[in-house]
Specification:
This protein folds into two domains: 4-134, Immunoglobulin-like (Sandwich); 151-310, Glucose Permease (Domain IIA) (Distorted Sandwich). It has three helices and 23 strands. It has helices at 25-53, 320-323, 331-337; strands at residues 4-9, 57-63, 68-74, 80-90, 92-94, 100-104, 109-117, 125-134, 151-152, 157-158, 179-182, 188-190, 195-201, 220-224, 230-234, 248-249, 254-257, 268-277, 280-283, 288-290, 294-296, 303-305, 308-310. Strands 11, 13, 14, 15, 16, 18 and 19 form a seven-stranded antiparallel beta sheet that branches. The longest helix has 29 residues, at 25-53. The protein is elongated, with a radius of gyration of 27 Å. The protein starts with a strand and ends with a helix.
Length: 340
């Protein structure tokens, strides 16, 4: 899953009022009213963005007598690395240098920075952006961890995008080792490995298109594993999720149906294993496991079944009529009839 970037405006509560000898009473009242309206409008705007954009982190600015305090709360059950970048400022001094990077443990609330006026005779304001990265930094996948093929079907499906083949959309490090598996809408998607549901997006329609407008309109489920890595299942069918955030999931448990939501050229399942590496979402190579196949690596144009990976297209038997030329049955014809 790529990192989410959030925009948040600061709240310039502090508006220095000049001494009365420099202002008339009427100007003072007008200034106070204007400042109050601006602060109220901006506060409502900030609150809207802060809560609508993020379900895992809440960042807010609180005013005390002399400064504005930026506070962050991790609303999730997992560690998060939060990064704040100052985008603009006027007449400020800060309690710590920017950018501000802070690891927040599950449920933790922390003060990030105090901002006040550098010159108390002037007003001040600031704006910042924040982004967060899920997971404990620099974890490694547990040795010997087993990952099931993430669907149940009587059919085999071919991998159409993988690290060893032509790349259409998996250009960044978060998706470099991901795979795309075309499949009919409504195919049962299962948990490849057990863990806890940490993200569950379910509301978008199955009208995917390969345009930038659809990058943020994919339904997906993210499951955190015991070792701190996670798996992400993307382009799921609208309202098909069978899980809830915080729910413990066993490997092989049905979690949703495949769909065609978000940035997509056809119905398919996008699957990736990811981890937090130095504050960035990084994908790592996938190795599936099956009772009959053992450990296998899904490659470009390989065929996947619920039981594992096939090295080539499943054998399809043909009739003698389909395989013969000039009514001659030879070894080539026999191999064709056997699907070889």
């Amino acid at each position: 899953m790529k990192s989410s970037e959030k925009n948040l405006l600061s709240m310039p509560y502090h508006q220095h009022i000049q001494p009365l000898r420099q202002m008339s009473i009427q100007m003072l009242i007008q200034s106070l009213v204007q400042s109050l309206i601006q602060v109220l409008a901006l506060t409502l705007l900030v609150s809207k963005f802060a809560y609508a954009e993020s379900s895992l982190v809440n960042v807010e600015t609180i005013k005390d007598a002399t400064s504005n305090i930026v506070i962050a709360k991790n609303l999730s059950q997992i560690p998060l690395t939060l990064t704040l970048n100052l985008s603009s400022s006027t007449n400020i001094t800060s309690s710590t240098s920017w950018p501000i990077i802070r690891l927040l443990q599950a449920g933790e609330t922390a003060e990030l920075v105090r901002v006040s006026a550098a010159d108390n005779s002037q007003a001040y304001a600031f704006q910042y952006l924040y982004r967060y990265q899920i997971g404990q930094p620099n974890v490694q996948a547990a040795p010997g961890a087993k990952y099931l093929v993430p669907f149940i079907s009587t059919k085999a499906f071919q991998v159409m995008q993988a690290a060893d083949g032509p790349i259409f959309s998996h250009h960044d490090i978060a998706a470099k080792n991901a795979i795309d598996i075309p499949m009919p809408i409504g195919t049962t998607v299962i948990a490849s490995r057990g863990g806890y549901v940490i993200e569950n997006v379910n509301q978008f329609s199955d009208n995917g298109q390969a345009t930038s407008d659809f990058l943020s309109k994919a339904n997906y489920i993210c499951i955190l594993h015991d070792d701190g890595t996670w798996a992400i299942y993307v382009h799921l069918k609208q309202f098909s999720s069978r899980v809830a955030i915080g729910q413990k999931i066993a490997a092989g448990m049905p979690i949703a149906l495949s769909g065609n939501s978000g940035f997509s050229t056809e119905p398919h399942l996008h699957f990736a294993l990811q981890k937090n590496e130095n504050g960035n979402t990084v994908s790592f190579p996938i190795q599936f496991w099956g009772e009959s196949t053992g450990v296998v690596i899904p490659r470009y144009h390989s065929w996947l079944t619920s039981a594992g990976v096939l090295p080539s297209r499943p054998k399809t038997k043909h009739s003698a009529k389909e395989c013969t030329e000039n009514a001659i049955i030879d070894e080539t014809t026999l191999r064709c009839m056997r699907g070889q």
